[in-house]
Amino acid sequence: MSTRPLSGRLVALMAVATGAIVANLYYAQPLLHQIAASFHAGTTATSIVVTATQVGYAAALLFVVPLGDVHPRRTLVVGIFLVAVVTLVWCAASPFLWLFEVAAVATGVASVAGQIMIPFAADLATPERRGRVVARMMTGLLVGILLARTVSGIVTQAAGWRAIYWLSAALMAVFAVVLHRALPAERPRPHVPYGRLVTTTLRLFVDEPVLRRRAWYGAATFAAFSVLWTSLAFLLSGPPYRYSNLVIGLFGLAGVGGMMAANVAGRFADTTRTGLSTVVAALVTTGAFGLLAAGKTSLGFLLAGIVLLDIGSQGMHITNQAVIYSHLPEARSRMNSAYMTTYFVGGAAGSVTAGAALAAGGWDAVCVLGAGFGALAMALWVTDRVRLDHRAPGPVARSTGESPGPQSTLGSSRLCRRG
């Protein structure tokens, strides 16, 4: 545990830093049509840029984030920010699409620092504030996502698409210095061999039904979210819209609804109303694609669909994280690693299938695909709810609607004591 208490100023700094580094995952999304023109590539090949970034991020979630349970997190976070400087310069200087895609994988790996800081903040928070602290951290993350798309559009309009990567590289260097000075030190923790650390992360996914359920919900809704944002730039740059890079980037601001959902879901988590927020988030995610389908030719419907999709996907994500952070505090980094790895595998699946759907059936196929992922999240929740209702309600199930299973918590506690 840290030797310094969690202050509001420190939460704000960690939230801003989380938003700044996660933004690196999203700079390319509103620029895919511009990147395709620059490298003389098609929509399917260019869409792989988004998938490559998410694959790199998922790999880092599995192989880097667990280090947060045994390694001093200040050193780990600062080191990741410095690596991000290198990968962003690589993106900015890549002369070929394939080399840019490799750099995108590396950038995804180097964008994972926020997923170490979020459980760090959860560790520092008191139990009664944990849901709200996680929500504030996620608000910072969401602001980063929103501004990533908007700022990348503005910068690209003024200086070309490569300029955003040069700018972000400089920003990462500044944050590395600031975080080195501001993040609290931690008391030494027991050494765990790296192989065992990763193995226990995988074991948690097997042994913890709550974690597993929440990971699948998150993967399905993030797949739906990625379907939209991988395809949207191609819709907006073509007829009937024909928008500039600047205007396409501004569409990211429509996701401000996601920030409201984060705070509402955080309050629901603190009052154990996670079942309600889960089912509402799944329904909103699915229904958003009906509006997005009408948005093919109607700006009003398109904007409404974007707002609803952000509310649904972020509401689900915050609820999931609040639930899993209430389990096994000694292994929060590994719990987060297992959850977020699954989450971004879902996002990568959404991105790669979106490119294929757009090429095969246009915007209508994209919306059917996204609605399908949202319906999958709802079906998973209903299936799990029916299964849980046939079990005797334990104290966790009564309070949160989440049952850890008859032996999972005890088994995972032994697992964590072994490392």
Rg over alpha carbons: 20 Å
Count of β-strands: 0
User: What low-confidence regions span 5 or more consecutive residues with pLDDT below 50?
Assistant: 394-401, 403-419
Largest sheet: none
In the CATH hierarchy, the third-tier topology is known as Growth Hormone, Chain: A
Report the β-strand fraction as a percent range. under 5%
Apparent shape? globular
Helix/strand-derived category reads mainly alpha
Question: N-to-C SSE series?
Answer: HHHHHHHHHHHHHHHHH
Distance between the termini: 17 Å
Please tell me the CATH architecture by its name.
Up-down Bundle
Describe the model:
Helix 3 runs parallel beside helix 5 (97-109). This protein has 419 residues and is mainly alpha-helical. The protein has a single domain, classed as MFS general substrate transporter like domains (Growth Hormone, Chain: A, Up-down Bundle), CATH 1.20.1250. The chain contains 17 helices and no strands. It starts with 7 loop residues before the first helix and ends with a helix. The chain is globular and about 60 Å long. It has helices at residues 8-22, 32-39, 43-63, 73-93, 97-109, 114-124, 130-159, 163-182, 194-207, 209-237, 245-250, 256-270, 274-294, 299-325, 332-389, 395-400, 408-418.
Blueprint (SSEs and pairs):
Blueprint: H1 8-22, H2 32-39, H3 43-63, H4 73-93, H5 97-109, H6 114-124, H7 130-159, H8 163-182, H9 194-207, H10 209-237, H11 245-250, H12 256-270, H13 274-294, H14 299-325, H15 332-389, H16 395-400, H17 408-418
Helix pairs in contact: 1-6, 1-7, 1-8, 2-3, 3-5, 3-15, 4-5, 4-8, 6-7, 6-15, 7-12, 7-14, 9-15, 9-17, 10-14, 10-15, 12-14, 13-14, 13-15
